[in-house]
Amino acid sequence: MSERAPYFCNFPFRPSEKRPIHLTRDKLKLFIYTEEFPESSDLNYLIASTEDMTVGEYRLAPGSTFNPVDVHAGDEIYYILEGSVTMFNPELGQVVEISQGESVIMPKGAPHKAYNFTNTDVLILFVIAPKIWDENGPPLSYDKEMKRYKYKERAGR
């Protein structure tokens, strides 16, 4: 998937064929992101991807994350349907845990990585608008330094 897969911006119809459509679970596009790194990927159901938005679900297994760090050409919202996930922004060193019924927004261009530190699956609804990736497709690596919070030891410990 080093280039944008053909179903992005063309699912469930091409831009020239737009029409109202009822999407049932059996019509969704199942894919692994990223195909290049299946050992550190997540299972996705693409609900819709047009030139104006991409909507889907993805599942992170217990103890897993996805690689590489993701960056989108549009704003992305995560809404947690099941479980709890820890989001990491390597550019800022920001870490936030979001649980079922909560959401987080990553502005356009914000690098992010999700971790499942729990013992149960996490199911996430995501919406990206207006574009999932630019013409170069998804990032294949993250070459910048990942900032991490540093903790000082307490006196007497």
Quick description:
This protein has a single domain, classed as Jelly Rolls (Sandwich), CATH 2.60.120.10.
Task: Summarize the topology.
Elements: E1 29-33, E2 42-49, E3 54-60, E4 75-82, E5 84-89, E6 94-99, E7 103-106, E8 113-115, E9 122-129
Antiparallel strand pairs: 1-2, 2-3, 3-9, 4-7, 4-9, 5-6, 5-8
Structure keywords:
157 residues; mainly beta; 6-stranded antiparallel β-sheet; 3-stranded antiparallel β-sheet
Task: Explain what this protein looks like in three dimensions.
- The structure is a single chain.
- It is built from no helices and 9 strands.
- By secondary structure, it is mostly beta strands.
- It has a single domain, classed as Jelly Rolls (Sandwich), CATH 2.60.120.
- The strands form 2 sheets. Strands 1-2-3-9-4-7 form a 6-stranded antiparallel beta sheet, with no helix packed on it. It has a 3-stranded antiparallel beta sheet with strand order 6-5-8, with no helix packed on it.
- The N and C termini lie far apart (48 Å).
- The model has no long low-confidence stretch (mean pLDDT 85).
